[in-house]
Fold this sequence. Notes:
The structure is a single chain. Helix 5 crosses helix 6 (129-137). The chain has one domain: Rossmann fold, CATH 3.40.50.300. Helices cover 42% and strands 17% of the residues. The protein is an alpha/beta fold. Magnesium ion is lined by residues 15-16, 40, 44.
Amino acid sequence: MKALAVFSVKGGVGKTALAVNLAHAAATLSGRRTLLWDLDAQGAATWMLRLSPRAGAKARKGFSDGDIGSLIQTSDFPGLDVLAADRSLRHLEKQLADDDKSKRLKKILKSLEKDYDRIVLDCPPGLTELADQIFRAVDLLVVPMLPSPLSQRAFDQLTQHLARDHKGGPPICPVFTMADRRKALHRQTLESAPDQAVIPYAAAIEAMAVSRTPVLAAGRSTPAAKALRALWTQVERTLVKP
Ligand SMILES: Nc1ncnc2c1ncn2[C@@H]1O[C@H](COP(=O)(O)OP(=O)(O)O)[C@@H](O)[C@H]1O
Ligand SMILES: [Mg+2]
């Protein structure tokens, strides 16, 4: 099993859109038994995959009693299961801060190892205690960023934090998101890092909030679908590297 987190210090940069599409790509393009774990109390990934938390479910409790498996649901998309977010996650930070186990998340992921080939974490923003647990637990960080100087700054903050507190942390795959080549600033930023993956600003991705369908399941061959397919291929190649 390999785990990847879609993470950024910033909000609104396309983490959830990427997490949902990459998890769906893992299941469909690579035939991986895939779990999308929605760690953001807002539950946007859960909602986009047409699910909601079960009545009375408390995802936060899974961090203390370790019985996270009972919270997993199957989705409409073959091979893709979901661990839904619920409101209890709002208090996860406090619980993790009071807890003395810095590798809780890593242990939980290990307990899911025989059931899944790929686990994709959709993360809330910020360099929090949960983020530190994520950095200790995953095999890859996919980091979306807008093609702008502020995003570069947030990315530098992340790499500095990983260097200081996590011996560099897991491998990082930075991704430009919502790229609009009509904008000079975007063009310049993209040209400054020509090898970095790019997801264009796309109506097909925006529409996910309405259709509640991953881009590749919507079945059209749009530039966004092409870019997501290429990104998944790159991610999968990194994950299988010995
Ligand atoms: N590539 C894209 N093109 C157009 N809109 C996008 C794209 N990626 C994300 N969005 C939209 O931008 C908003 C924020 O994206 P989201 O994935 O929720 O970000 P985050 O999880 O980082 O907060 C959402 O309305 C989403 O539909
Ligand atoms: Mg999100």
